[in-house]
Amino acid sequence: MCVRHGVKRPPNTSKKAPLSYNSPQYKALPTPARWQAEPPHSTHPPMKHARSVIHKTLRCLILAGTMLALTSHADEYADTSELVRANKFAEALAKVDSYLINKPADPQMRFLKGVIQRNLGQQDEAMATFTSLTQDYPELAEPYNNLAVLHAAQGAHDKARVALEMAIRTNPGYATAFENLGDVYARLAGQAYNKALQLDSGNAQVPRKLNLISELVKP
Hints:
There is one protein chain. The protein is mostly helical. The chain has a single domain, classed as Tetratricopeptide repeat domain (Serine Threonine Protein Phosphatase 5, Tetratricopeptide repeat, Alpha Horseshoe), CATH 1.25.40.10. Helices cover 61% and strands 0% of the residues. The chain is built from nine helices and no strands.
């Protein structure tokens, strides 16, 4: 599928327009600027076609930078973003890890860590990062969306669907998640049509439907 400080609860992010960052097929989000860095609440137990992974990453971080300048941790976020813009992902990850030693609960920097891990090809680590964010901050929709991106990249479209439905439940105005969900449903439909063709190769309607689905989901 194509990829934001205080003691109070993170404010609602539903008014933030989605930005894209990763994967050729699906869309995920950069860190929303208005997320608050706070410890997880004790009550708790981010699919459009992309021109390139790096282009999408740069685009979202440049846009995010204007928002991050309003935060008290602007220097840390801005420095990390500059490293990502320079494709220095390993250095960016080291800076994030150093920051999180003193502020391990900061959702914004944790989200950025997941983005960096994904760009480094550390899919399992990125998935773990976004999963932990959904557990610690279930009120934030973006981590669910990005988790769905990773599931879809592995062909786990049912898991991607569940994650996107959680994103939409958390933020019913989340257009990116709705679009990604449509792409996931298209891929699931393709799997169903392929199975139908295996069971009934004489059905002349199924190949036509498969062609339509292929046009929808091809990069």
